[in-house]
Amino acid sequence: MKKSLFTLALLLLVGFHSNAQKVEFQEFDLDNGLHVIMHQDNTAPVVITSVMYDVGGKDGDRERTGFAHFFEHLLFEGSENIGRGEFMKIIPANGGTFNANTSQDRTYYYEIFPSNKLELGLWLESERMLHPVIDQVGVDTQNEVVKEEKRQSYDNRPYGGLIKTIGESLFEVHPYKDENIGKMEHLDAATLEEFNAYFKKYYVPNNAVLVVAGDIDYDKTKKLVKEYFSAVKRGPDVVRDFPKETPITETKKVTAYDKNIQVPAIIAAYRLPGQATRDAYVLDMISSYLSDGKSSVLQKKLMDEQKQALAVQAVNIGQVDYNIFALFALPLGDVSLETLLAEMDEEIVKLQNELISERDYEKLLNKFENQFVNSNSSVAGIASSLATYYLLYGDVNIINNQLETYRSITREDIQQAAKKYLSPNQRVEIEYLPKKDEQ
């Protein structure tokens, strides 16, 4: 009876959370093509203003890589009405915080303010879009900033070149083959005219989504958005026609070296359908099953029971055009990389030949239900999700129905996806080794 009561209480709690997390929002478009999403949450006097631009590392001339990441920094320099360096002073002076980040697919800027500073947040983002100052002083300043970031986060960081190696090994023609941060020689060679042309092409209202979330009034917010953003001129529509990758049908072996490591790594990387596909959701569940948490299959086997690995992980990296699914492990002691790969492959084969247990399946569903609840537990998280689902998935309503997609995935779906995508002849195997002095 106690167990039944506990189960009933748990189901009621889950139902309550799922209902409580339903995100209400309103949408509208300005004449210049800017899509606007508003979400009202008056539980705390906080508001977030954010803009996501449909531009990332994959966009632009391949002899000028890294422009999107560069602009993440450059567009904080100032505008016609904001002095150089003042952008980052105005926000904290008004009780706010801010940040920005860039992926291969998009660039995201946001500010979090007390709700009585809503108008300030909208003005700042409109200034960034309307007339930022892009001059040689700003370009030179941010060039040094980006170079220092590259040194700290990539060149001099253990395993800092891993993502670069995976991208170069897994993609031959698609621009995902290039690092998001770009090549420094490309930034050094770029002219001011090239930077301005890049801005005019990608940082336009019809290539962006504005999200305003938090302690707002819908009518007032809509009026303010029109006031600050209607003057921004529509740009030309961005047309993308990236080359398609040929499917991998034979195992590709790669050896790479890193001067910053002492322990080698083994990576098996697969190129898979993009993040908006149903199969990508299934592979999310597979990666979680394999390595999410101490009780996961690979961690329990390789780290706890057999003590063969210092670390092991399976990840499904979401991207618009192609996802990257990767198995990664660091050996413990004298364990060989070949042994680690064979042990990981053994678990993949089990997935291909057997259905996972009902118990493990329920654990997976519970994990993704918790992730769904947590992702919608803050105004900042909701704003980011609204922008992402609209711009990169083409359906803002995913914020409320994503959990149903995961719930619809069966144990048979998991088995079929493992068979379809995770065979050795469909991957790149990378031995990532310490670099010796003579190399």
TrEMBL record:
UniProt record similarity statement: Belongs to the peptidase M16 family.
Q: Which stretches make up the Peptidase M16 N-terminal domain?
A: 36-158
Q: Which UniProt keywords apply?
A: Coiled coil, Hydrolase, Metalloprotease, Protease, Signal, Zinc
Q: Which InterPro entries match?
A: Metalloenz_LuxS/M16 (IPR011249), Pept_M16_N (IPR011765), Peptidase_M16 (IPR050626), Peptidase_M16_C (IPR007863)
Matching Pfam families? Peptidase_M16, Peptidase_M16_C
Where in the sequence is the signal peptide annotated? 1-20
> Lineage of the source organism?
Bacteria, Pseudomonadati, Bacteroidota, Flavobacteriia, Flavobacteriales
Q: Highest taxon of the source?
A: Bacteria
UniProt cross-references to PANTHER family, sorted A to Z: NARDILYSIN, PROTEIN YHJJ
Q: What is the protein named?
A: M16 family metallopeptidase
Tell me yes or no: is Hydrolase among this UniProt entry's keywords: yes
Coiled-coil residues are 334-361
- Report domain Peptidase M16 C-terminal positions: 190-366
